[in-house]
């Protein structure tokens, strides 16, 4: 309920922004004698920029992994600000105190050492490193990508193959596959196994959590979970060629009943992902749309990860 109220408040603030901006502009034009005529406009713009940065990204998580990573990010930011803010304040204080017009400031050319100052100078960065290192150490073990999530529900198995330049998602238990989109049930852990056909890539869903690399001839693992229904954007976070910018996909989280209905619908009315079709998919294709396959006779993930199919292409084919 609290999260819903906050989201509603943010949405209301965003809807009110155009009206407040117009009112501030009229006030500015009417009152040219004010010493800071644009302060209202600047304040509103800064506030909206801060709010806009918190939506549809790592600061707006919808899964337990994403929320844990946001906590780590917030803690690390607070630790660093504990040093940055005092340094900025002291810089301004020193500049003001040792200004040319202050006769109380004493110039001491022979002064060169103070044990207390040296202790403070070295103690603060040492503590910062210890705190940041501790957060990174604990978080890297708690959020280890192959580590299963704490849940009484068995995970959904999804195999991911990064193509040039598309994403192939295979459901080995359901024997179906999709291109550039995947559907998962809410509240159910998803265990990803990932590989690549030709070059290294990076699988990333910002609102759900960790990114993980996909590499040819290797298999990596990732565990995520979507706690609320919705559509979440996914992307490639690793440059992988001319079509890298179009290498995006969507994850649709739906209740378990709708997910099961979707699986049944896909099995009933879609094509077959056989070896000839797979050979076409591994060829470079830019800005391709979504595809669905209701039957997967032979698991292509093992073929790609094991290096049992040719996936190399020439520079001309990539154009």
Structure description:
This protein has 319 residues and is α+β, with helices and mostly antiparallel strands. It folds into 3 domains: 2-52; 64-142, Helix Hairpins (Orthogonal Bundle); 156-305, Immunoglobulin-like. The chain has helices at 2-30, 39-52, 64-97, 115-142, 256-269, 275-281, 300-305, and strands at 156-162, 167-171, 176-179, 181-185, 190-196, 201-204, 212-214, 220-224, 230-236, 248-254, 271-272, 291-295. The protein has a 7-stranded mixed sheet. Helix 1 runs antiparallel to helix 2 (39-52) and helix 3 packs antiparallel against helix 4. The chain is elongated and about 85 Å long. The two termini are 51 Å apart. The model is unreliable at 1-19 and 21-37 (pLDDT under 50).
State the end-to-end distance: 51 Å
Major sheet strand order: 8-5-1-2-3-12-11
User: Helical element count?
Assistant: 7
Globally, the shape reads: elongated
CATH homologous superfamily (4th level) name of the largest domain: Cupredoxins -  blue copper proteins
Helix content: 40-55%
Q: Strand fraction band?
A: 15-25%
Q: Please report the first level of CATH classification, the CATH class of the largest domain.
A: Mainly Beta
Mean pLDDT over the residues? 80
Tell me what the CATH architecture of the largest domain is: Sandwich
Uncertain segments: 1-19, 21-37
**Could you say what the CATH topology of the largest domain is called?**
Immunoglobulin-like
């Amino acid at each position: 309920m609290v999260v819903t109220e906050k989201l509603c408040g943010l949405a209301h603030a965003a809807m009110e922004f155009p009206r407040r901006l117009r009112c501030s502009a009229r006030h500015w034009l009417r009152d040219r004698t004010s010493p800071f005529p644009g302060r209202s406009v600047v304040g509103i713009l800064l506030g909206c920029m801060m709010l806009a940065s918190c939506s549809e990204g790592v600061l707006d998580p919808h899964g337990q992994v994403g929320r844990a990573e946001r906590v780590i990010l917030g803690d690390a930011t607070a630790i660093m600000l504990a040093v940055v803010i005092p340094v900025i304040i002291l810089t301004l204080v020193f500049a003001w105190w040792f200004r040319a017009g202050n006769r109380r400031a004493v110039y001491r050319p022979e002064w060169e050492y103070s044990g207390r100052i040296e202790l403070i100078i070295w103690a603060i960065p040492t503590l910062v490193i210890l705190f940041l290192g501790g957060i990174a150490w604990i978080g890297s073990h708690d959020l280890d990508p192959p580590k299963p999530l704490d849940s009484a529900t068995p995970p959904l198995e999804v195999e991911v193959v990064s193509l040039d330049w598309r994403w192939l998602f295979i459901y080995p238990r359901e024997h179906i596959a999709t291109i550039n989109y995947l559907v998962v049930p809410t509240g159910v852990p998803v265990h990803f196994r990932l590989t690549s056909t030709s070059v290294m890539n990076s699988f990333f869903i910002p609102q759900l959590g960790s990114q993980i690399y996909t590499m040819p001839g290797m298999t990596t693992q990732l565990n995520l979970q979507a706690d609320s229904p919705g559509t979440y954007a996914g992307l490639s976070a690793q440059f992988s060629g001319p079509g890298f910018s179009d290498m995006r996909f969507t994850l649709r989280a739906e209740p378990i009943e709708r997910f099961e209905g979707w699986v049944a619908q896909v099995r009933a009315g879609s094509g077959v992902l056989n070896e000839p079709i797979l050979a076409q998919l591994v060829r470079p294709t830019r800005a391709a749309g979504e595809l669905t396959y209701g039957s997967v006779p032979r698991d292509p993930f093992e073929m790609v990860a094991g290096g049992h199919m040719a996936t190399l292409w020439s520079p001309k084919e990539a154009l």
